[in-house]
From TrEMBL:
<dbReference type="GO" id="GO:0005975">
    <property type="term" value="P:carbohydrate metabolic process"/>
</dbReference>
<dbReference type="InterPro" id="IPR004276">
    <property type="entry name" value="GlycoTrans_28_N"/>
</dbReference>
<protein>
    <submittedName>
        <fullName>UDP:flavonoid glycosyltransferase YjiC (YdhE family)</fullName>
    </submittedName>
</protein>
<feature type="domain" description="Glycosyltransferase family 28 N-terminal">
    <location>
        <begin position="3"/>
        <end position="132"/>
    </location>
</feature>
<dbReference type="InterPro" id="IPR050426">
    <property type="entry name" value="Glycosyltransferase_28"/>
</dbReference>
<feature type="domain" description="Erythromycin biosynthesis protein CIII-like C-terminal">
    <location>
        <begin position="288"/>
        <end position="404"/>
    </location>
</feature>
<dbReference type="GO" id="GO:0008194">
    <property type="term" value="F:UDP-glycosyltransferase activity"/>
</dbReference>
<dbReference type="GO" id="GO:0033072">
    <property type="term" value="P:vancomycin biosynthetic process"/>
</dbReference>
<dbReference type="Pfam" id="PF03033">
    <property type="entry name" value="Glyco_transf_28"/>
</dbReference>
<dbReference type="InterPro" id="IPR010610">
    <property type="entry name" value="EryCIII-like_C"/>
</dbReference>
<dbReference type="Pfam" id="PF06722">
    <property type="entry name" value="EryCIII-like_C"/>
</dbReference>
<dbReference type="InterPro" id="IPR002213">
    <property type="entry name" value="UDP_glucos_trans"/>
</dbReference>
<dbReference type="GO" id="GO:0016758">
    <property type="term" value="F:hexosyltransferase activity"/>
</dbReference>
Length: 421
């Protein structure tokens, strides 16, 4: 089977697809990965042929855009950069993939793959990494920057979400997409969040115990476990300095604000004050330069990157932005989480963590030592939180989201290429 995997986004969007690609290649399928240029080295370590979407400078400029990290304005900024990838992805697939002979596995924002499906008849599996993208009338997601109380009727919250489609997402995404589609003699897309899911197969890569399946209009969807993929990142094992730090004292608090966030100085300054307030050691994970103070107190370590699966099980708690990949790693480690959401799905992930009893959330404005320290103290000492974290860890140990996703891709391929005879 020839598989073309397309991942558009940052580490949290790309690494799960990279892990699926690597496992499919291990199963002896011919796999090629398309992703932003900075992921070329990671693909090479996984021995995956690679097609670069854009340049490293394109990726750097996108991550540095201030508007990207604002709840509502971030949607427009994101789709400006996503639109630039649509035509290159389409042209790459048109030149390499064949209907009936290839399977395309595409992340949500790989819009060029959906265009290729419609224009060229390619067989496409869409991968939605987070519950926000599944949609539900019965239990609508929490939208970025619009944390409506859950006591409001679900029907009303769903109606507000439809308004976001019409007045925020549509104007940001559809003009460029429909201009490209017009050049291909394709009709315009009216509602992006209905169109971007393949009508053939959709994988929802979060387990049912995390976000229970809800009635929705995607009968072609299949729910699998979290595709844990941190070891496919910048490095597979922690640096020796990290191992020495973890062994030198009690479990630290871990802080991260995501791989692409370049305006997290206030977050990390607050992290230092929280560590001092609670008398805890801390490990600050920040790949972007200039985010962490140059001089750190004793008992606090800064590292650009470390695989969470190796670090978090030895930490006391994790404070982070709310990305779904980070959420999953902390669940696997069995530690409580404090979410300080920025944009996108972060607000919705905080809701699921609260429901599970494993975490809490504070807005960026309310993320101060005076509020965060007592919140963390509660998460670290409440036996009910500890019990919920232990239960989540046990559930995570029983599943393999990457293998489940690959099984689903192989099963899909068999439906489009029935066995001979």
């Amino acid at each position: 089977m020839r598989v073309f995997i397309v991942a558009v986004g940052s580490h949290g969007d790309v690494l799960p697809l990279l892990a699926i690609a690597a496992e499919l290649r291990r199963r002896e399928h011919a796999v090629t990965l398309a992703a932003p240029a900075p992921f070329a080295a990671m693909a090479a370590r996984a021995d995956l042929p690679f097609f670069a979407i854009g340049t490293e400078e394109d990726y750097r400029l996108a991550a540095a855009e201030a508007e990207l990290w604002r709840p509502w304005r971030g949607v427009g900024a994101m789709f400006r950069h996503v639109s630039a990838a649509t035509e290159p992805v389409y042209r790459w697939l048109a030149a390499n993939a064949q209907p009936g002979e290839s399977v395309v596995v595409a992340s949500t924002l790989a819009l060029g793959a959906r265009v290729a499906q419609e224009k060229l008849g390619l067989d496409v599996v869409t991968v939605h990494l987070m519950p926000l993208l599944a949609g539900s009338r019965a239990d609508p997601p929490v939208l970025p920057g619009l944390p409506l109380p859950e006591r409001l009727p679900a029907r009303f919250r769903h109606w507000i979400g439809r308004g976001a489609d019409r007045f925020v997402i549509g104007p940001a995404a559809l003009p460029a997409l429909n201009e490209f589609r017009a050049r291909l003699d394709l009709p315009p897309v009216q509602r992006l969040r209905r169109w971007w899911s393949s009508p053939q197969r959709v994988l929802l890569t979060f387990p049912k115990w995390y976000a229970a399946p809800q009635p929705h209009r995607m009968p072609q969807s299949l729910q699998v476990g979290f595709p844990l993929a941190d070891r496919f990142g910048d490095i597979a094992e922690p640096e020796p300095a990290v191992a020495r730090f973890l062994e030198a004292g009690p479990p630290p608090l871990a802080f991260t604000y995501g791989s692409a966030m370049s305006r997290s100085q206030t977050f990390f300054r607050t992290a230092l004050r929280i560590c001092a307030e609670l008398g805890r050691r801390g490990i600050l994970l920040a790949p972007q330069s200039g985010q962490v103070p140059a001089r750190l107190p004793d008992g606090v370590l800064h590292v650009p990157y470390a695989p969470f699966s190796r670090v978090l099980p030895r930490c006391a708690a994790l404070v982070h932005h709310g990305g779904i990949g980070t959420v999953a790693q902390a669940l696997a480690a069995g530690i409580p989480q404090l979410v300080v959401p920025v944009a996108f799905d972060h607000f919705d992930e905080a809701r699921w963590l609260r429901r599970l009893g494993v975490g809490a959330a504070l807005s960026r404005r309310r993320f101060t030592p005076g509020r965060a320290a007592p919140t963390l103290r509660h998460l670290l000492t409440d036996p009910r939180v500890a019990q919920a974290c232990t239960a989540a860890k046990a559930r995570m140990a029983q599943e393999d989201g990457v293998a489940e996703a690959c099984d689903a891709v192989e099963a899909f391929a068999r439906t489009i290429r029935p066995p001979a005879g």
